[in-house]
Amino acid sequence: MSARSLHTSLQLPRSIEELLRRSPVLFTAAAVHVALLVLLLGVAPLDARLVTGLNPWIKPAKFAASIAIYLLTINWLVGDVALPPRGRRAVVWGTVAMVSFEMLAIVMQAARGVASHFNKSSLFDSAVFALMGIAILVNTGLAAYLASRFWTTRPPLPAPYLWGVRLGFLLFFLACAEGGFMSEQSGHSVGVADGGPGLPIVDWSTRGGDLRAAHFFGMHALQAVPLFGAWLSARASGSASRTRRAVRWVVAFGVVYGAVALGLFLMALAGQPLIRM
């Protein structure tokens, strides 16, 4: 794919058409999660219950949005690299199955009025959280397989964009490891209990450290860094020297992005909120 064709396909109408061409399965799953997001936002005002201090449908709504973005990202990336038929089926159907299971578990726990994450208050809740963890591990393995293809097969992509994808995956996996760290300590807050006062929408703690800020920032490197690479690819097309310079800018962007994510992580470990209120 040339830099010009990449830039053209990133225009919204053509992007949707291209996503459907690359994987109708992943695109449909993303659309279902968008529809679920709308439904959850409609249900939330009708429920007066609180779970860890929040309306129980807020967390499922946030996950529906995040999973939809993730599915669309994988949807795009499977079309950028050569995959053997069996590997492609595993990535497409495995990704849909794992994230959909996690989403169903979160919605089910919200309907029950209990926490979905770090909930070990009963044998059933512990089993649900453990199964969610297994689904996340399997999904991470599928993402690692897809990422490996960008490193080992040298796909015909503009160099700045290719390096954006590679670095985006690397930062994404570091954020996944941080998610494992949160699971190990059975919570996301540091210095305060989970469920206290938090920022609007994201609910990150305003009284103590919150590991979710770094986790969120790192996970979305999978979108931010490749998009930066795609933007520079369009600007650097036609010149080898400009392409090399663009690659250096992508690497620098990835390093700075990772440094910010690390800073947010260390800040949370020190018990410092992103914004104190």
- Overall pLDDT score: 93
Over all CA atoms, what is the radius of gyration? 20 Å
Poorly predicted residue ranges: none
SS element count, helices: 10
Spatial order of the strands forming the largest sheet: 1-2
Summarize the structure.
The chain has 277 residues and is mostly helical.
Task: Describe this entry's structure for a reader.
The protein has 2 domains: 1-157, no CATH class; 159-277, no CATH class. It is 71% helix and 1% strand. It has 10 helices and 2 strands. It has helices spanning 3-9, 12-22, 24-43, 58-77, 85-112, 123-152, 159-184, 212-219, 221-236, 240-269, and strands spanning 189-190, 209-210. The chain starts with a helix and ends in an 8-residue tail after the last helix. The model has no long low-confidence stretch (mean pLDDT 93).
Descriptive terms for the model:
277 residues; mainly alpha; two-stranded antiparallel sheet; 10 helices; 2 strands; globular
Itemize the secondary structure elements and their pairings.
Blueprint: H1 3-9, H2 12-22, H3 24-43, H4 58-77, H5 85-112, H6 123-152, H7 159-184, E1 189-190, E2 209-210, H8 212-219, H9 221-236, H10 240-269
Antiparallel strand pairs: 1-2
